[in-house]
Amino acid sequence: ARLRLLGMLLRWMQRLGLLTLVECIASGRLREALQLLPDLSAPPFSPRDVVAAIPEGARRGRVALFWGCLAPILLPNVQRATVAVLRSYGYEVVVPEGQTCCGALHLHSGLRDDAQMLARQNLAAFANYENDAIIVNAAGCGAVLKRYPELLCGTTEEESASRFHLR
Question: Are strands 133-136 and 91-94 parallel, antiparallel or unpaired?
């Protein structure tokens, strides 16, 4: 919710030209960070927008889209394009409810327990969906999702993490 609020604030600041103004005034790391922001003019895209993403033409399979926390806010057109391309190739696209952040930022910050908690929540969210593959747009998320078996090694979720990893 905080990221969505931040995304909305940044979108409005960009539309009003305030980000450009702040970039001119700012220096150092803040200026560098502002220069890295993508064009935020695209309207937000939410999992609700994917409902009934039925394949076009002959059905080739069903995929689950890992939504992530930053990609839909900073790059909503990437999420839209992913759904559209998958549908055009004959794939039904589902976005499992209950998924959350992948835990990459937590893991990289040394917050292993928090990353494990998020991994468990994602495993539970995807457990209810039969699919041929899990699609991820964010490279950082994909890297951490592949590490779920290692992250949950020695826990009761280790087996389900291994199955999640193999999809």
Answer: unpaired
How many CB atoms are located within 10 Å of the residue 67 CB?
24
Determine the Cα–Cα distance for residues 15 and 7; give it in Å rounded to an integer. Answer: 12
User: Which uninterrupted H or E stretch holds 31?
Assistant: helix 28-36
**CA 13 to CA 11: how far, in whole Å?**
5
Q: Which residues of 141-158 are buried (b: 16+ CB within 10 A; e: fewer)?
A: bbebbebbbebbeeeebe
What average pLDDT values come out for the chain (167 residues) when binned by 10 residues? 78 81 82 79 71 76 88 83 91 90 92 95 90 89 92 89 69
Note if the pTM is more than 0.70. Answer: yes
Q: Which two tokens stand for residue 125?
A: 């969210």
Encoded tokens for 131:
């699919």
The torsion angles phi and psi of 36, rounded to 5 degrees, stand at -85, -15
80 burial via Cβ count (<10 Å: 0-12, 13-18, 19+): middle
How far apart CA 41 and CA 108 sit, in angstroms, is 30
28 in helix, strand or coil?
A: helix
Contacts with 14 (C-beta within 8 Å, 6 or more apart), sequence order: 37, 39, 40, 41
